[in-house]
Amino acid sequence: MGVFNPLIPIPKNYQHILAMAFAIQEINRDPQLLPNITLGFRIYEENQYASMTQDVSLSLLSSRQKEFPNYKCDTQDNLLSVLGGLNSRTSYQMANLFGYRFSDPDLRDKTQFPTFYQIDPQYHLQNAAIVRLLLYFQWNWIGMVNDICIHFVKQILPRISILNILHRDQVYMLLTILNSDAQVVIISGDSNSLQSLLIALSCYEEDTQTTSGKVWILTTQWEFSAIGYHYEWEKLKSFHGALSITVHTRPVPGFKDYLWALNPHKPHGDVFLPEWWEIVFNCDVLKAGLVSPDGRRVCTGEENMDTLPSSVFDGKMTGFSYSVYNAAYSVAHALHAAYTWESQRALKRGREKPHLHLSVKPWKVTSPSVLTRKSFLSLTQPFSRCVKHCLPGQVRKVAEWKPKCCYQCVPCPEETISNQTDVAHCDPCPKDEYPNKEKNHCIVKKMHFLAYQDTLGYTLVSLTLFLFVTTSTVLVVFLKHRDTPIVKANNRDLTYILLVSLLLCFLCSFLFIGQPRKLTCLFQQTTFAILFSLAVSSVLAKTVMVVLAFLATKPGNSARKLLGKPLTNSIVLGCPLIQAVICTIWLAAFPPFPNLDFHSLVGEAILECNEGSTSMFYTVLAYLGFLALISFIVAFLARKLPDSFNEAKFITFSMLVFCSVWITFLPTYLSTKGKSMVAVEVFSILASGAGLLGCIFFPKCYIILLRPHLNLSPQEQLGKII
Fold first, then answer.
1. pLDDT per residue over 398-430, tens digit each?
2. How many CA within 13 A on the CB side of residue 658?
3. Contact 238, 204 (CB under 8 A)
């Protein structure tokens, strides 16, 4: 640690004086601006303490000899405007002030400071720049400190504890900043505050052998490189990566030539130039023939300013110097406008000299741009948030007892996603898509239907073909042995109708397998209903014929009149016709259609046939159940009738299987979705058809093929016995 003197000169600030002198020189040489009027200026020392500015303010309001406020009778060198210092506290103490740099919003209060004008209204632009900077880096957990004030000491000894330097409140404030989990700190204040911060951070690094680890954002009031407190910046590691908002500037023609023309041996009334020259070039400005008392090099006046580092002196006009330059021109233009107005009034009234009444208005910033984008090195971006970013698939949830930016990250609700970070709400997927497991993007739903390629579909197709081949074989056997007693005894025509209807019932299963289309949806349920009605009607007709045949054997029974094809044809044609009428009404009023169900299954869209009317579907099933129940009752009553080939008991078992299958079908059908529901209906069709085929025809095939000696009429059996 070294010795710190708060009153040492700051060479870079000398450019502010040169900027004002250059502006005054240009104004006086401009024949169009304030003709026949020469402007001058006087520089006062503020001594870095705002309270001492009151003495300077009194001297502005008094004569040169004594300070009598509001009594100034000098005839020359009357001040018309005052440009403030580098410190906002200085401006607080002054009354007649034309500011060029300060951004303190309190100075805009015209009640408290009626004659203060800000030439550069940069306060709100600076705030906008900082906000955009924070938004760009997504920093929302920020430390903010305004006007750090640390009492300076003459000497700071090496390894001294920071607690010996700072007051208790200042220690608490600094430790609060350094211990906070906010990694970004905005510091607002003037150059003195920056010096105070540098002292504190230097002491902290020296005492703890660590760095602050913070990103410091400095406001425009802090001229980073123009610090009279000469630290070795490479050693002060806490400020590595600091960001500073700079004041706008632009090249001023002739200013660099003006600087190059400066010569300490020809100061032209500039008392600061020789001292400044000695400081920046480390030489002595001596009169001819004199020798430097400390043996230093004598300044030649030929030293080159371009060799000076920018921290000592910048050959280009800085932002603050540019504000001084503009302030001087603002005063000149205001005086020119007032002088021109008074001159016209004086000419009208015959006066020779105009009396000046000043009316100065502040300049306005015409460019809204407050942030210039620069490319940063590809390093890790500092993280300064009270919580981590909510990842895609999460949503912010603000707790009532925490700041709005300190939210919680919770997973998106079901059926919603978020594909960006820190979203306030999750969005639902389109109806044909669904969220992935992480809920950060939507996936197109797969079409779900009973396809031929599926294992279940392949199994049902195989079973259908097997039953179709089996039924066809039975039909061939019955056709081949159509003249045998067992075939003739059970009404061959009804047998053929029943077998053909079973063949068609098995084939109608293919309407349910595969991708549902308009035609397949339109005819699958109605075809199944009509064909099964035909099959059950055939069974009913066979059972009725068995009962009537037995009754006809009794003498005087009128049942003989009913025997014959008219009755069987009426049953076989009439019962399916009623079902056909119901199906026609169904197709006309509520036709089934293909439908996509996006909600029943996760990740899949069910492509199914919508029945159009659930009531009509259950009406068809109810009528089919009614026919099966009648057939079962009639067959059950006729199961013990004496007949060598009485098939009533086989019909009873077949109807029992048929009814059991479809009674089981209803709850299973209602509890499943998608292709499982379709598979249940196909299986019910195959199982009920197989029940009719097996219970009615397999016993007969057994006799025909394996026990032909039993395939005899009653007369043949009696003759064989005799």
1. 877 777 778 889 999 988 999 998 898 999 999
2. 28
3. yes
